[in-house]
Amino acid sequence: MLDDYPKEIDLRDGQIATLRVLHQEDEDRLIMFFLTIPEDERNFLRYDVTERESLESWFGGPRWNEVFPIVAEINERIVGVAVLRGYRTQWFAHIGEFWMLVGENSRGLGLGRILASELFNLARDLGMEKLSAELRADQLVAIKIYKQLGYVHEGILTDYIKDAQGVTHDLLIMGCKIKDYWQKLTDSQIYPGNTIINP
């Protein structure tokens, strides 16, 4: 799997982006990238990605049953991040969690679809059968993106999370079976790199 990276991909506007595994020396540039993402978009993550302590488990090489981060670069500038998380316990070994963020200036170019496809492919290679996502129930744009990928609503927890102002929000749980994702691409003749979603 590591042999697949780095790889170059063509974006809709003609730019070439490089996908590669995250390295320790990327830490400063990674935090700078996260700071360019609007705070309300970062809030759906379980931890503060602008704090170095939160990113410690990302470095030192991919740990297949824990975390696998991929970055997208254009001209050595990070423009997107995608993370696949696995679980060590036997009960959840077939489940993964995936999320991604794409910089505002790089949206609408197909990068989000490409990053998603990379992680769905990786999850399949690792033997995962399903990917889950948890996000605030009022994050309609993010929900739309997950639906485009084939995720469906699986539950909602009321007043389950609090934002920085102490306001409670409902937590939406979504899931997608990996085989259903690839079947959807096959049925619609849509293939990674040729479509656009935001991010």
Automatic annotation (TrEMBL):
The keyword Iron belongs to this UniProt entry's keyword annotation: no
Ranges where the N-acetyltransferase domain occurs: 17-179
MF-aspect GO terms: acyltransferase activity, transferring groups other than amino-acyl groups
InterPro entries: Acyl_CoA_acyltransferase, Bact_Acetyltransf, GNAT_dom
Keyword Acyltransferase attached: yes
This protein's UniProt keywords: Acyltransferase, Transferase
PROSITE patterns (UniProt xref): GNAT
PANTHER family: AMINOALKYLPHOSPHONATE N-ACETYLTRANSFERASE-RELATED-RELATED
The name this protein goes by in its record: GNAT family N-acetyltransferase
